[in-house]
Write a structure and sequence with these properties.
16 helices, c-terminal autoproteolytic domain of nucleoporin nup98, Hen1, Rossmann fold, 477 residues, 2 domains, globular, seven-stranded antiparallel β-sheet
């Protein structure tokens, strides 16, 4: 079984630093089932390919396995384990590429978070569920997939195709993310594992998939297959995955931000979070949107405002936190709405850093105080998920203005407004980011202020409104 990983970003041989494997040597590591050999079929400044060849000892495999008591008595001797990418390959990835999988790079540490044009090829991968399953697993993560199905036996074409595929996956992604996806999803495709599953397997799943699995639309299927359909283990893992708390106060506002804003002026002002929500709703109304998304909807405050407007025919809220969605469902009283109203609202669990086909075909979308809760290297994934794949007609994005923090007496220099914020941008930084999106994904963008405005440091919050260029009958903008 063979896994190759190719990098085409110059200098492409940076891949060898990330993998901690010298391109001029053939290296081998022992695994529980045999040996894994690492070598480089191609190394140049323009293109670098690393290969992981797993050589399984079938006799040793049987001796180690011992009697299994399966219905098929010869299964230990008649199986595909020595020839396909299965959980043995996941174990080999963890052993051969442990530093890369854990996000360590001694010589060039900055490379760990670099988005690279990577492609991985698996020869061959057993897929119980066919190409449809492959796409449901990898497409939400942003991959382009080429799957070549192999016949059961080329000498007997009448037998039809088998469940074996040569799979090529391409994505702009970090190497650490690619390896974590492969580590978890290879045995999920196979729907089997070569070893006994215990509670420690939950820890492995959470360690390797904790960043991306909670927001994956197929997280339940992945969890159950990874844990070999052991219901108690799968339920325990799923409960942990959905426990991520929404990083806002109970009423939906950033912790302490409104209290700080009140200290700036003696005159009571509308709550800043309410102003953001109202402004986002007004922008969607003015754009004429009818089908709208609230991305990172939390406990549903914006959803409630949107549902009150007859213009919006369908309102969909998405959040990574299952608990927040349950609270939103309760606060919106969805179960008690008339049938016609209930058909206007949908709540889905998902992550903004992965492609999700459920988000496609909408007129508008709002991301109210969402982006600052992501690590900056992951913003590129959000950009692709929203602006390249979902492509709403209008997108409203709000985020705090870092320059305004000097007006808060209870915020020290360098401190952020909320403990979960990964960054806070100045007006220039936000405008540069938004302008880049507009160029890359063919949007127009304008900037507006929200909340109190200071002549020197700007407004309390800042907003970008992205819209598709208008074309006339001749297709000219």
């Amino acid at each position: 079984m063979l896994l190759t990983i190719t990098n085409t970003r110059i200098p492409a041989d940076d891949l060898s630093y990330l993998l901690h494997k010298h391109p001029g040597k053939i290296q081998s590591v022992e695994t529980s089932a045999g040996k894994a050999h690492i070598f480089y079929p191609e190394v140049s400044r323009e293109k670098c390919t690393a290969a992981l060849l797993l050589d399984i000892d079938p006799v040793g495999l049987v001796r180690k396995a011992g009697p299994k008591g399966n219905d098929f008595a010869l299964e230990q001797y008649v199986n595909d384990r020595p020839y396909v990418c299965s959980s043995f390959m996941s174990a080999a990835i963890a052993k051969a590429y442990s530093s890369a999988l854990n996000g360590r790079c001694k010589d060039k540490p900055a490379l760990v978070d670099e988005l690279l044009p990577l492609s991985a090829k698996l020869s061959v991968l057993p897929v119980r569920g066919g190409e449809k399953l492959l796409k449901s697993l990898f497409e939400p993560l942003g991959y382009t997939i080429i799957a070549t199905q192999h016949p059961l036996d080329p000498a007997f074409p009448e037998w039809g195709d088998g469940r074996y595929y040569t799979v090529e996956l391409s994505n702009i992604i970090t190497l650490r993310q690619l390896l974590s996806h492969l580590y978890v999803l290879i045995p999920v495709c196979d729907n089997d594992k070569h070893y006994w599953i215990g509670k420690d397997e939950i820890d492995k799943l959470l360690e390797k998939g904790g960043e991306w699995l909670p927001g994956h639309p197929e997280n339940e299927l992945i969890t159950r297959r990874y844990l070999k359909h052991q219901r108690s283990l799968a339920n325990e893992a799923l409960e942990i995955l959905v426990k991520k708390e929404d990083p806002v106060d109970e009423d939906g506002s950033e912790a302490g931000e409104d209290r700080a804003a009140e200290e700036v002026s003696e005159v009571p002002k509308p709550r800043i979070h309410d102003q953001r929500l109202q402004t986002a709703k007004d922008e969607l109304l003015m754009a004429g949107a009818k089908r709208v998304l609230d991305l990172g909807c939390g406990e549903g405050k914006l959803l409630k405002l949107l549902l009150a407007e007859k213009q919006f025919e369908l309102v969909m809220g998405m959040d990574v936190s299952y608990r927040s969605l349950e609270i939103a469902k309760d606060k919106l009283k969805i179960d008690r709405l008339p049938e016609r109203q209930r058909q206007r609202i949908q709540l889905i669990q998902g992550s903004l850093t992965y492609r999700d086909k459920r988000l496609e075909g909408f007129d508008g979308a709002a991301l109210v105080e969402v982006i600052e809760h992501l690590d900056e290297p992951r913003l590129a994934s959000l950009e692709r998920a929203v602006f390249e794949y979902a492509q709403p007609g209008v997108v409203v994005v709000t985020t705090p203005n870092e320059e305004y923090n000097v007006k808060f007496e209870n915020i020290q220099q360098g401190q952020m407004r909320h403990s979960d914020h990964r960054f806070e941008w100045t007006r220039k930084e936000f405008e540069a980011w938004a302008a880049g999106i507009a160029v890359r994904y063919n949007y127009d963008v304008i900037f507006k202020t929200i909340g109190e405005v200071d002549p020197e440091v700007g407004s309390l919050s800042q907003m970008a409104v992205f819209s598709r260029p208008v074309k006339n009958a001749q297709g000219i903008i």
